[in-house]
Write a structure and sequence with these properties.
about 260 residues, mainly alpha, two-stranded antiparallel ribbon, 8 helices, about 5% strand
C-alpha cells in the first residue's frame, strides 16, 4: 500500500486525497463534454460537480461515522481525518443525488437528460476513487484461496491482527474495474438509449448488483443489519435496486406505448 504517494519534508500528498481529486476532475470533464454534446449549458455541469463534491463527502463521511459509531465516539476528532479513508459510497450518493435533484428542478433543466449525464460521471469517479481506497489500504478483502491469482497482503497498520500476512482479495480493485466497465457501457450506449433517464436507471440497477456480491469478499468493518445477515451496503443496495428496476421497466413500457401512438 502507498497511503502517502509523495512526501517532501513535512509536506505530504496522500494517495486517497489525490485519487479523489483525479476522480472529481475526470467526472467533471465528462459531464462538461457530454453537456456540450447535448447542447446543454455546460456551466450547470460545473455547478453540479461542486455540489456533488461537497455533499458526497458530507454524506459519505456521515454514513461511515454512523456505521462505525463506536470508533468515532471514542475519538471524535478522527471524524475529520478523511485522508485515512472512510467514506460510504451510498451515503455520499444519496446526499449528492438529493442536492442534484433540487438544483436541476430549481434550474428548470431536463431531469432525465441530466440524470443520464451524471450516471456515467458517478461510475467514472468511483473507478478512480476505489484506486485511492486500494492505495490507502482501506476496504480490504477477505482471505483469498491459494489457487486464486489476484491477491495482496496488506500491512498490519491497516488490517486486524488476525489477517496479518494473509493474502486477501483486492476488493477495491475489483470494484474499480467493474464500475469502470459500467461507465464505459453507459457511455457507449448513450446514443442508443430509448428515453431520457434510461442511463441513470441502468446505473441504479447495475451498481447495486456489483456491490451486493463484492460485499461477500470484503472483510473490513462496514456494519450489519440485525436479523438479515446483510451488510449495510447490501441492504441499501436492495432498497435501491428494486424501485430502480421498476422505474427502468416502466420507462421502457412508456416508450413502447409512445412509439405505438406515433
Amino acid at each position: 500500500m502507498h497511503p502517502i504517494i509523495l512526501q517532501l519534508g513535512s509536506f505530504k500528498i496522500y494517495s486517497y486525497s489525490l485519487m479523489v481529486l483525479i476522480a472529481f476532475c475526470a467526472g467533471t470533464l465528462y459531464a462538461w463534454l457530454e453537456a456540450k454534446r447535448l447542447k446543454e449549458n455546460p456551466e450547470h455541469a460545473l455547478d453540479l460537480a461542486v455540489l456533488v463534491f461537497i455533499f458526497s463527502f458530507i454524506g459519505g463521511r456521515l454514513a461511515h461515522c454512523i456505521v462505525n459509531w463506536r470508533i468515532y465516539l471514542a475519538d471524535p476528532l478522527r471524524i475529520f481525518k478523511i485522508w485515512e479513508g472512510g467514506l460510504v459510497y451510498y451515503g455520499g450518493y444519496l446526499a449528492s443525488a438529493l442536492v442534484c435533484y433540487i438544483y436541476i428542478k430549481r434550474s428548470h433543466l431536463n431531469l432525465g437528460r441530466w440524470a443520464d449525464i451524471l450516471a456515467p460521471t458517478a461510475m467514472t469517479t468511483l473507478f478512480f476513487g476505489r484506486i485511492g481506497c486500494f492505495l490507502n489500504g482501506c476496504c480490504y478483502g477477505s482471505p483469498a484461496p491459494d489457487w486464486f491469482p489476484f491477491k495482496v497482503k496488506y500491512p498490519l497498520s491497516v488490517i486486524p491482527l488476525h489477517l496479518a500476512g494473509v493474502a486477501l482479495h483486492p476488493t477495491p480493485i475489483y470494484e474499480s474495474l467493474l464500475t469502470g466497465l459500467i461507465a464505459l457501457g453507459l457511455i457507449l450506449y448513450r446514443k442508443r438509449k430509448k428515453y431520457e433517464g434510461e442511463l441513470f436507471w441502468l446505473m441504479m440497477v447495475l451498481y447495486p448488483v456489483v456491490r451486493f456480491f463484492l460485499e461477500y469478499l470484503r472483510a473490513d468493518p462496514r456494519g450489519v443489519v440485525p436479523g438479515l445477515n446483510l451488510s449495510t451496503s447490501q441492504f441499501l443496495g436492495i432498497l435501491i435496486f428494486i424501485p430502480s428496476l421498476l422505474c427502468l421497466i416502466i420507462g421502457y413500457r412508456r416508450k413502447v406505448r409512445q412509439d405505438a401512438l406515433q
